[in-house]
Amino acid sequence: MKVLVVDDSSTMRRIISNSLQSLGVPLEITEAEDGNDGFTKYMASPDFELVLSDWNMPNCNGLEFLQKVVATGKGTPVIMVTTEAEKTNVITAIKAGAKNYITKPFTPDILAGKIKQTLGLK
Amino acid sequence: MSAPLDKSYVGVINPFIRATVNAMKTMVYMEPRRTNLHIKKDNIMKGDISAIMGLTGTASGTAVLSFSERLAIKIFSNMICMKANSEPQAQGITLEVEDSMREMINLVGGGAKNEFTNSEFHFMVGIPSIISGSGHRISRDPKVPCIACDFEAEGEPFFLEISLSVGK
Predict the structure, then answer these.
(1) Interface membership of B152 toward A (CB under 8 Å)
(2) What is d(CA B14, CA B54) in angstroms, rounded to the nearest whole number?
(3) Contact between B99 and A85 using a beta-carbon 8 Å cutoff
(4) pTM
(5) pLDDT tens by residue, A52-76
(6) Which of A1, A88, B62, B129 has the highest count of CB atoms within 10 angstroms of its CB?
């Protein structure tokens, strides 16, 4: 499965990448450090099956990145992974096209569970 | 130097304390223990590395987490499951360790922010900065009290300092 992980924290990108290993499927993970970097990498590869993105990032934030990805019409599921737990933010992200929403801090099990739910994996 | 904590400050620091404990338990796999709660009068940090986050909005100020070098390295290792992945431990405060400290204050500031929604202390979180070195100082608005909570995790102390006021 080709996954794009967008977060300005290298630590968080590694945590997410480690958590993805528990899905038990072959993975090809691409990392990006903000929304601009993420969108460039997203457009450079036509077959991402999942995108995980932080919200608060410099240059281009997660919501702007989400909107750009949705606007391409490729339909790649995007999961927001963020400390922004306020209900209004969750609604904003879902309305903008996010398929799921995970609030930090999270355990690897929670992250894997939300990904499985989003992709319909067992 | 510290003085006893007035009860009126408890409501300000408690969401940050809860967010700190939650972040340490959930993402660092450590059980932190509170050791002291007080108003801090000086600006000298007790840790070797401090992560600072500006808070702006209805309320504004700073949130700081300060760790010993040993604990900062342990936190980084635990966060990325270094032992499980058989990776060598970081030697000193590397850029990666600094990044993990930024993420810690992000988790704490973000967690507290969510608790203050619809309150007079509502704020937005800024992009964190790092200061390191023994005895480093952090300058704050002297008119705003700095509420400090000392913790201990795995035998190492760490420090949470909140300076937050409404309508500034």
Answers:
(1) no
(2) 18
(3) no
(4) 0.90
(5) 999 989 899 999 999 999 999 999 9
(6) B62
